[in-house]
Amino acid sequence: MHTTTPPASLRSAPQIAIVGAGMAGAACARTLAASGAQVTLFDKSRGVGGRLSTRRTVWTDAQGAEQPVQFDHGATHFSAHSLAFQTVVQQGLAEGWIARWAPRMGLQDAAPDGLGSDRFVAVPGMPALCHALIGALEVHCGAPVTALHRVRGGWQIERDGGLWPQRFDHIVLALPPAQAAPLLRPHATRWSEAAAQVPMQVCWTLMAVTDEPPGPAFDLLQPSHGPLDRIVRNDRKPGRTPIPGHAVWVAQASAAWSASHVDAPAAAVSEALRDALRAVVNPGGSLRWCHSTVHRWLYARPARTPLGTPGCWWDAAKGLGVCGDFLVGPQVEAAFLSGLDMAQAMRSAPATRRTAAHGAARFARL
Ligand SMILES: Cc1cc2nc3c(=O)[nH]c(=O)nc-3n(C[C@H](O)[C@H](O)[C@H](O)COP(=O)(O)OP(=O)(O)OC[C@H]3O[C@@H](n4cnc5c(N)ncnc54)[C@H](O)[C@@H]3O)c2cc1C
Hints:
Elements: E1 15-19, H1 23-34, E2 38-43, E3 55-60, E4 66-71, H2 83-95, E5 98-101, E6 119-122, H3 128-134, E7 138-141, E8 145-151, E9 154-159, E10 162-163, E11 170-174, H4 177-184, H5 189-196, E12 200-211, E13 220-221, E14 228-233, E15 246-253, H6 255-260, H7 266-281, E16 289-302, E17 313-315, E18 320-323, H8 332-348, H9 359-365
Parallel strand pairs: 1-2, 1-11, 2-7, 11-18
Antiparallel strand pairs: 3-4, 5-6, 8-9, 9-10, 12-15, 12-16, 13-14, 14-15, 17-18
Helix pairs in contact: 1-3, 1-8, 4-5
The structure holds flavin-adenine dinucleotide.
């Protein structure tokens, strides 16, 4: 295979491939690039952000006109407890790509969201957070990385049916564990097995546009029973465009309900979740559905992190690393800290075999 880059030993800045441009990959990329590495990101989706995602689509109004609408159908918001993430949030607030969100809480808000009282959203959509961290770094989207190959002086990745021409000194996988496992299998069997065993929760998510319902308005409601465990008024989040006379909903089914309906047809799930939403926001009444669709997240959140796990996995001898929320916790901030740990481990132990143990402990303390 012809390569366009010289062997790693002849280059000065380390060349690093990061597979996965969600929060963990973006945090790792930004930190490594700031210390002089040449970073290239790869993602299978059309854009960056991963589970920090916003779906843009159109719906047809009563006059037959198509209207744009957006749904933050992955993470709905995030918090910042650690100094490192607070610094990013402060920068985002100052530059306008993060906004503070102070939702009116629904009366049924029985379960706290576990994120504390300071809530934030990225603007204009959730991927803006990853866009801001990645900046002008090289990103290739739209095709999955299907294999990693160790070659003389580094690594090559397989993607889109062929070998990517550039050779990398180091590879970082910033993926959900089930997606990291097959890529790791030929190179790090124990990591592959550990990743494959991390339980991930499923989440069915309803995205809908309705007429504005009567009754008390709320922006965030966390029902304590029934199929749904989080309901958000997407149009009332900062930086989103309200639709006069209408409501834009993102409603997430609980992990238990989603698991028991994991293989149910989307149409049946959609009907069940619409019934559940109507029962909460307009009990006994009706809602006019202008638009609705569902999305199934197979790897929504880690149910638990691997026992005694560090915040990232780094094998300096191989130049291979793994990071992601599943190593720290089920939040955007946890993914950020795992990515940061990854970069710090690579910087502090570039040449000897070492596994890093930063993030989990620090995240728990803060
Ligand atoms: C429905 C839902 C609601 C949530 N709500 C919240 C919330 O309110 N607050 C909060 O803090 N957190 C929430 N979370 C969790 C939060 O979104 C995640 O913890 C965090 O975004 C994970 O980031 P990550 O970088 O670890 O993984 P991801 O965001 O999953 O990034 C991994 C990336 O890898 C890419 N990828 C996968 N396989 C390949 C491959 N083979 N080749 C190339 N690319 C690949 C994917 O396309 C993706 O972009 C929620 C998650 C979901 C799904």
